[in-house]
Amino acid sequence: KNEVEQSPQNLTAQEGEFITINCSYSVGISALHWLQQHPGGGIVSLFMLSSGKKKHGRLIATINIQEKHSSLHITASHPRDSAVYICAVLLITQGGSEKLVFGKGTKLTVNP
Amino acid sequence: ETGVTQSPTHLIKTRGQQVTLRCSSQSGHNTVSWYQQALGQGPQFIFQYYREEENGRGNFPPRFSGLQFPNYSSELNVNALELDDSALYLCASSLVLRAGGPDSYEQYFGPGTRLTVT
Question: Residue A19 in contact with residue A77, Cβ under 8 Å?
Fold first, then answer.
């Protein structure tokens, strides 16, 4: 079982729709990242959060530490939002270093 | 634009060969992490370097090795390439205030190097 599970795996929406992508994790974390990856590979960090909620433009990320769950919301979706959205949790290893453990990603396609 | 660059963008190698991938971090970032992303999968942590020392390693064999230099550049070396090493290799830089502390800033990812092993 993956330490980080995302749902759905694939999501198709019409322009303007409200979108939610979910992430559940099974380990204790120090922070959670939401990342966006476009075709070709480049990854952009959207949010890093350890509690509560963050908002940036049309993007909102929430995290519930007790339930080990985070959501990424996109309001008024647009075709340019089409990308793979990846949830990654920041773990502190036994040796004291940190590493990101990634979900498999959610492929979002927004049609005009 | 994250300020993190990687070279080359694409690379084709033959099984058994050796490869060096390069990453240039954001200025001032003391930590670089390397990830391997197979097609259709999320990235997997290879290792992390903090102030030029390996500071954590994922489940990758010793033929994956790295270096970090004082000028914010770093390398990932893979020896004895195998077909399964074909993947996108990503580096990410961050500023960590102290090794092992949960107080790192956001990680900034490079565009990746696509390695194909034939």
Answer: yes
